Design the sequence.
């Protein structure tokens, strides 16, 4: 019988191989294009406040200047076009409905694969340590596995370490992509572009993701509503604080922080790429 954890451990090993080899991304994409895709995606999946909507032309220009491959740019343009044409109030309501009220739209990567609080807490601490190694400290009110943060870290600070985090959480990103495609979300193109920068899934991987989406994760992992019958509400502050506290008891150095949605102050300003967020 298939066990999702086997798939997850496979991608953890690939992330380790990536760190040792110096790179494991999709062929034909140079570093400047990767950084542009990750920077744009980080903005586009954040809460559509006035600062984001005002910077849409700048994001498009960044993709053009960096020579992003057409298939990735087309996916990102799908989201840019929707945000540019939409009513701001409607966009914000849609964003909250898509990402903040359903577990299946969760942007916290470790939540997909680590239901056991100790395991999830340890995964969060490991990401924080990667940030610290690059000279960055997070606000303790924020969680390091939010996809906007991971992408911004890869774009503006340490591309290889950022890709390593993405690869380690590949299953969650693929499940998010499947969900957004299924509901016809305007943010689906952005997640497709992120997936398009990573190595192609092989046959076993595709089968594993499809089965995980259809049946939900095994008991050691956390599932999503619509992916195996799990509840609708997003991960709570209590759940996340418990995860961080449990991990801190066995790994020193990090304090617990509540679960936080996108749209808050970003801990890594990309002033040289898109202007500092506020």
Sequence:
């Amino acid at each position: 019988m298939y066990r999702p954890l086997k798939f997850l451990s496979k991608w953890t090993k690939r992330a380790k191989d990536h760190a040792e080899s110096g790179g494991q991304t999709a062929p034909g994409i140079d570093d400047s294009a990767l950084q542009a895709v990750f920077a744009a995606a980080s903005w586009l999946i954040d809460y559509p406040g006035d600062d984001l909507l005002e910077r849409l032309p700048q994001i498009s220009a960044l993709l053009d200047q960096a020579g992003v491959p057409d298939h990735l740019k087309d996916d990102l343009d799908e989201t840019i076009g929707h945000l540019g044409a939409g009513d701001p109030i409607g966009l914000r309501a849609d964003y909250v409905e898509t990402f903040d009220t359903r577990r299946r739209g969760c942007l916290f990567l470790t939540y997909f694969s680590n239901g056991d609080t100790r395991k999830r807490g340890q995964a969060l601490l490991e990401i924080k340590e990667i940030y610290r190694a690059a000279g960055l400290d997070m606000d303790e009110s924020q969680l390091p596995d939010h996809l906007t943060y991971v992408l911004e870290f890869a774009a503006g600070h340490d591309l290889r370490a950022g890709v390593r985090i993405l690869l380690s959480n590949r299953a969650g990103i693929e499940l998010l992509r499947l969900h957004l495609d299924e509901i016809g979300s305007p943010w689906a193109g952005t997640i497709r572009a992120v997936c398009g920068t990573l190595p192609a899934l092989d046959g076993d991987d595709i089968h594993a993701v499809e089965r995980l989406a259809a049946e939900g994760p095994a008991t050691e992992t956390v599932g999503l509503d619509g992916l195996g019958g799990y509840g609708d509400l997003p991960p709570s502050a209590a759940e996340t604080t418990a995860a961080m506290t449990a991990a801190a008891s066995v790994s020193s150095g990090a304090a617990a922080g509540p679960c936080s949605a996108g749209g808050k102050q970003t801990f890594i300003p990309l002033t040289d790429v898109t202007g500092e967020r506020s």
Residues 4-21 form the longest helix (18 residues).
